[in-house]
Amino acid sequence: MAKLITSARASLHRCLRPFAPRALAALAMSLLTTAPARAQDLSPIDTFFTTLGTALTGTTGRAIGLVALAAVGIAFLFGRMNLGLAVSICVGLVILFGSATILGGFA
């Protein structure tokens, strides 16, 4: 068994020997030409969330809230609205439009 392992190892060394200088040269070039990684800023992510927050609390968000409240009113008019669902919609709108004030209190 040991003779088989030694034979396999010798055959592997014979096969890989021609590639060793090229592999060492490639390793040296990659080590010499690499630059340190620079820290990335998160401005694209910040911009995305700022735009999303502005859209939800601005005129677009107010229009969506108006449509939601109108739908609640129409559903109440026809007797199809559950009181729990209506309260949850109103509480959700209060949290949405009061979120800037709530988060301002934490900062």
UniProtKB/TrEMBL annotation:
Chain segments annotated as transmembrane: 55-78, 85-106
Coiled-coil ranges from the UniProt annotation: none
Alphabetical UniProt keywords: Membrane, Signal, Transmembrane, Transmembrane helix
One Pfam family hit: TrbC
Signal peptide segment: 1-39
Protein name as catalogued: TrbC/VirB2 family protein
